[in-house]
TrEMBL record:
The chain crosses the membrane at residues 61-82, 102-126, 138-158, 207-228, 240-256, 262-282. This is Sphingomyelin synthase-like domain-containing protein. Residues 20-39 are annotated as: Disordered. It is a multi-pass membrane protein. Residues 23-37 have a biased composition (Acidic residues). The keyword Membrane applies.
Length: 358
């Protein structure tokens, strides 16, 4: 009996043993890859963001995105409401007294906003830690748009155009404002993403805090902060575009000079305060003077799972390319072709070991 068993064991040649070892190693490597990519069933998340830089919880991401949408709509609702309360006589401005009204520069300013936003979204698409950037930028924009809504409701400035009565829409009855009129105005603004059409009558009173400047400054600051050092020279492009856009906003009399200055100061301050807090170590954040601001309590909650300091600024190929590379990887194909052979060898080993006497 023992002779038969030992004879069967000798049938496993040295080559077969090596093959079985190779199969086991490949299976172990494949299991490690699957554990890494499918951890907690979140393979998609692995494709989206860099796990080494910390994680972004889905509920926090949904919170900031919802906050951003509500803040944007609050701007449009405020503008739709205050339009009927805004005067039609322009206020004096130092730039208006020197430079004549050039309406065509508004289209240049809108183009600068579009280019700055395009550079921002291009960075998001290519950055390795795009989800972290989305969460941070969305919260910063939401806070700024909330400030803008409050400024619109508190103080209404008349538009700075020469012919305000011609450029602004008609005023409805203040005492009996109809909800249908306000809703149609809000939907019109939402459809245009806040842009005004110079060739048509517009809603007036969208002043004191320039939304165009807000978008351009936040976009340029984000690109400058998160662009890798190897592309350092590209950081100045959105910055120059934003300055051109701010000048065009004033020359076209879409905004007063103070509107642009307030938007620039507040956007720069909020962006830098947020990121300065993110660079503080977790153990020292509550001791920081920034933590005295109540808004920093929310920032601390958003950033608690993200590694303190500056995240790794590295670009990578888009998601579809990464998914294609994973799908066509040699290790995956080799595993699919050799899986059956390894399974057969394991079955053979199990049958032999079962024949051993106890």
């Amino acid at each position: 009996m023992f002779a038969i068993v030992y004879a069967k064991l000798e049938l496993l040649t040295e080559e077969e043993r090596k093959s079985s070892i190779i199969c086991e190693e490949e299976e172990e490597e494949e299991e490690e890859d699957e554990d890494e990519n499918h951890e907690n069933g979140k393979f998609t998340r692995r494709l989206i963001m860099n796990m080494t830089a910390g994680g972004v919880e889905l509920r926090k991401l949904l919170f900031v995105l919802t906050y951003l949408v509500l803040a944007a709509f609050s701007n449009w609702i405020a503008l739709a409401y205050i339009h009927d309360f805004v005067g039609r006589k322009a206020l004096p401005d130092i730039v208006f007294s020197v430079v004549p009204e050039l309406l065509w520069t508004l289209k240049v300013g809108d183009a600068m906003v579009t280019l700055c936003s395009t550079s921002f979204f291009t960075l998001l698409f290519l950055h390795k830690n795009r989800i972290i950037i989305i969460q941070r930028t969305a919260f910063i924009l939401a806070c700024l748009y909330t400030m803008r809504t409050l400024s619109l409701l508190c103080t209404q400035l008349p538009p700075g155009y020469i012919d305000n009565n011609k450029r602004c829409r008609g005023i409805s009855n203040r005492t009996s404002q109809q909800w249908g009129v306000i809703i149609s105005r809000v939907l019109s603004q939402a459809g245009k993403l806040g842009f005004q059409d110079m060739d048509d009558e517009m809603l007036c009173g969208d002043l004191l805090f320039s939304g165009h400047t807000l978008a351009m400054v936040v976009s340029s600051l984000t690109v400058a902060y998160y662009l890798p050092d190897s592309f350092r020279s590209l950081r100045y492009i959105p910055r120059v575009l934003s300055w051109i856009g701010m000048v065009c906003m004033v020359i076209s009399r879409t905004h007063y000079t103070i509107d642009v200055l307030f938007a620039y100061w507040l956007s720069t301050a909020v962006f830098n305060i947020y990121h300065a807090f993110c660079e503080i170590d977790l153990t020292n954040r509550k001791l920081s003077v920034l933590y005295r601001l109540w808004i920093m309590r929310i920032v601390g909650w958003l950033e608690v799972d993200i590694t303190p300091g500056r995240i790794e600024n590295r670009l990578e190929f888009p998601l579809l390319v990464r998914l294609y590379k994973w799908w066509s990887s040699p290790s995956r194909n080799r595993y699919c072709t050799q899986n059956s052979n390894c399974h057969n060898q394991k079955q053979q080993q199990l049958s032999i070991s079962s024949a051993l006497p106890i």
